[in-house]
């Protein structure tokens, strides 16, 4: 009984240890995966918010500029500005009152056109000398010649903000050009419009989906907040924001997504959206604590669930061990008898479970132990003999071959943009297309190495001009089939690819496997073919100097030596690019 109890305890401990280890690993992986997943989703949420609201804000700015340009391009406005630019100070004062009605009619017509909801509060039309010709709020004698908005507005349209009693106003500035102006002409005036920022605030202050601590705000190039803060009052033009998201945008023109301290010094998860053309960066941020709170809850639930499962498994293991005690004790006694050399022992356990099957197997083992040992030795000899017979044996011989390699150019860059399935499909189309050309010219495809195809023409007779031309025609056919290959790839929505072809001639060693009909070749000729392939221009054919010597007397082809001094110095041979000599012959072959 002591034996069964100890065995039961050991089984319980073993099961619990295995269970706890497995659950610990699963829990750790689950926690790690859930943490990364929730952080990733939080980052995607903020990145999506910054992108959507940033695009909305960019569209709003561009719309306001375009609306201001409508007013600046009004023929009457341009005529009135041109007329008033040339008058004296005395005449200008009376003309302001005289022309005010004309200006007002055009401005009111413009407001009716674009709608009063855009929030125009004041529009000033200023001449090129800084005099205010018209203002919605009344006749003004202000001098804008030194005004920053005016000076910049003579050169370009832009949007800016300025503080006001209610927070901020948006400034939209647009140059005015003469009616008959041409590209490069100087502006004759500037329109400066001040607008309410309700539309901007609607984009930024809508905090739905941002939790309890999320906010979206904008910062200008002076690192000053231009919108209300969720945490501080009167932050507009008062709160400085010099965080990594703002720095990356204004320094490197790069958007930033990640964890960093915000303007409060609190760790947040943020995403920025850069608008350098407007001198603004938009930031969507949420406290890291709020972002990871669901992760902590999930971690707690995983740990508690694991503990409950462990306890349940321990109870099940304990009762299972108790039920195993009796038959296992009988097996132990039988094993001790077999250890003493008594092979007549039988357990005769009839529990109708795996223990009974084990008992039957144990009894059979005792009966046939000696016979089994003999059979095992015999089988071991047979297995060794079979293994010896199936070892691959190679026979080698040497012959003179033309060895060729066609390799896809820039395959690493191309495949980085494709899925694994598309990469396999691209390679399949490319390699099969080129293999068919080799076979059609009675060549032998040896193997493919990634995106490269190795082929050969075996036992080449260099005195047979017809056979030698066939080899070169095979390679040139690959070059001239570039357009047809692209059409095949286009049908399958694959990217366009380029390739390089190299050809060498010389002695090779041929390895023939007893289990395969495909031969492989080795030696310096093969190595040279791969080396010169990397120096080949795209969609071209290069050959070694051995091949050039064979073909140099053929009138159909021309050979151009590639001046690669390092190749000559390092390896002692040169390479040549091969082209057809007569264009009409090329056209005939292409057809």
The CATH top-level class label of the largest domain: Alpha Beta
Secondary structure tally, helices? 17
Major sheet attributes: 8 strands, mixed
Number of strands: 17
GO molecular function: ATP binding; protein histidine kinase activity
GO biological process, one term: cyclic nucleotide biosynthetic process
EC number: 2.7.13.3
Organism: Candidatus Nitrosopumilus koreensis AR1
Structural overview:
The chain has 17 helices and 17 strands. It starts with a helix and ends with a helix. Strand 8 and strand 9 form a beta hairpin. Helix 1 runs antiparallel to helix 5, helix 1 runs antiparallel to helix 7 and helix 7 runs parallel beside helix 8. The N terminus is likely disordered. The strands form 3 sheets. Strands 10, 11, 12, 13, 14, 15, 16 and 17 form an 8-stranded mixed β-sheet that branches. It has a 5-stranded antiparallel β-sheet with strand order 2-1-5-4-3. By secondary structure, it is α+β, with helices and mostly antiparallel strands. It folds into 4 domains: 148 residues, 2-Layer Sandwich (Beta-Lactamase); 81 residues, 2-Layer Sandwich (Beta-Lactamase), CATH 3.30.450.20; 47 residues; 189 residues, Alpha-Beta Plaits, CATH 3.30.70. This is histidine kinase.
Give the SSE map.
Blueprint: H1 2-72, H2 75-85, H3 89-114, E1 120-127, E2 132-135, H4 148-153, E3 158-164, E4 167-176, E5 189-195, H5 198-204, E6 215-220, H6 244-252, E7 257-261, E8 267-275, E9 280-287, H7 288-339, H8 354-367, H9 369-389, E10 394-409, H10 411-415, H11 420-440, E11 444-449, E12 452-457, H12 465-480, H13 482-491, E13 498-513, E14 519-522, H14 524-533, E15 540-544, H15 545-551, E16 557-562, H16 565-571, E17 575-580, H17 583-590
Parallel strand pairs: 13-15
Antiparallel strand pairs: 1-2, 1-5, 3-4, 4-5, 6-9, 7-8, 8-9, 10-12, 10-13, 11-12, 13-14, 15-17, 16-17
Helix pairs in contact: 1-5, 1-7, 2-3, 7-8, 11-12
Domain Guanylate cyclase: 402-533
Keywords: ATP-binding, Cell membrane, Kinase, Membrane, Nucleotide-binding, Phosphoprotein, Transferase, Transmembrane, Transmembrane helix, Two-component regulatory system
EC number: 2.7.13.3
């Amino acid at each position: 009984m002591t034996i069964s109890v100890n065995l039961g305890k050991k089984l319980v401990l073993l099961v619990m240890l295995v269970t706890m280890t497995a659950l610990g690993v699963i829990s750790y992986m689950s926690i790690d995966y859930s943490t990364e997943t929730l952080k990733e989703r939080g980052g995607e949420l903020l990145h999506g918010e910054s992108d959507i609201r940033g695009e909305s804000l960019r569209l709003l700015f561009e719309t306001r500029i375009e609306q201001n340009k409508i007013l600046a391009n009004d023929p009457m406005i341009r005529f009135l500005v041109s007329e008033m630019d040339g008058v004296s100070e005395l005449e200008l004062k009376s003309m302001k009152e005289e022309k005010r009605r004309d200006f007002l009619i055009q401005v009111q017509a413009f407001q009716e056109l674009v709608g009063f909801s855009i929030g125009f509060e004041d529009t000033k039309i200023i001449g090129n000398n800084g005099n205010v010709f018209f203002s919605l709020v009344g006749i003004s004698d202000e001098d804008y010649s030194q005004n920053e908005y005016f000076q910049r507005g003579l050169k370009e349209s832009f949007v800016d903000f300025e503080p006001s009693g209610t927070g901020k106003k948006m400034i939209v500035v647009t140059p005015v050009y003469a009616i008959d102006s041409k590209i490069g002409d100087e502006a004759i005036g500037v329109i400066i419009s001040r607008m309410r920022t309700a539309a901007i605030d609607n984009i930024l202050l809508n905090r739905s989906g941002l939790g309890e601590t999320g906010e979206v705000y904008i910062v200008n190039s002076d690192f000053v907040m231009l919108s209300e803060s969720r945490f501080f009052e009167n932050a507009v033009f008062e709160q400085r924001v010099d965080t990594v998201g703002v720095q990356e945008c204004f320094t490197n023109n790069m958007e930033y997504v990640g964890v960093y301290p915000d303007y409060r010094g609190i760790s947040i998860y943020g995403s920025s959206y850069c608008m350098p053309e407007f001198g603004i960066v938009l930031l969507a941020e949420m406290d890291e604590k709020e972002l990871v709170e669901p992760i902590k809850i999930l971690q707690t639930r995983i740990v508690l669930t694991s503990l409950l499962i462990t306890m349940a498994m321990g109870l099940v293991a304990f009762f299972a061990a108790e039920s195993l005690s009796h038959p296992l004790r009988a097996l132990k006694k039988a094993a001790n008898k077999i250890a003493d050399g008594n092979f007549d022992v039988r357990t005769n356990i009839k529990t109708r479970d795996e223990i009974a099957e084990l008992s039957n197997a144990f009894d059979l083992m005792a009966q046939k132990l000696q016979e089994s040992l003999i059979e095992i030795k015999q089988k071991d000899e047979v297995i060794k003999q079979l293994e010896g017979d199936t070892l691959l044996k190679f026979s080698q011989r040497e012959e003179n071959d033309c060895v060729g390699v066609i390799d896809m150019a820039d395959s690493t860059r191309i495949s980085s943009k494709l899925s694994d399935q598309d990469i396999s499909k691209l390679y399949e189309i490319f390699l099969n297309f080129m293999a068919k050309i080799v076979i059609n010219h009675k060549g032998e495809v040896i193997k493919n190495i990634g995106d490269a195809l190795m082929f050969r023409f075996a036992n080449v007779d260099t005195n047979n001009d017809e056979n030698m031309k066939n080899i070169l025609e095979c390679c040139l056919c690959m070059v001239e089939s570039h357009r047809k290959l692209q059409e095949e790839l286009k049908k399958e929505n694959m990217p366009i690819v380029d390739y390089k072809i190299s050809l060498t001639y010389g002695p090779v060693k041929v390895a023939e496997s007893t289990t395969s009909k495909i031969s492989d070749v080795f030696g310096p000729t093969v190595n040279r073919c791969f080396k010169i392939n990397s120096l080949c221009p795209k969609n071209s054919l290069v050959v070694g100097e051995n091949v050039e010597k064979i073909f140099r007397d053929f009138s159909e082809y021309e050979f151009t030596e590639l001046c690669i001094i390092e190749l000559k110095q390092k390896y002692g041979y040169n390479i040549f690019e091969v082209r057809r000599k007569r264009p009409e012959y090329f056209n005939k072959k292409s057809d």
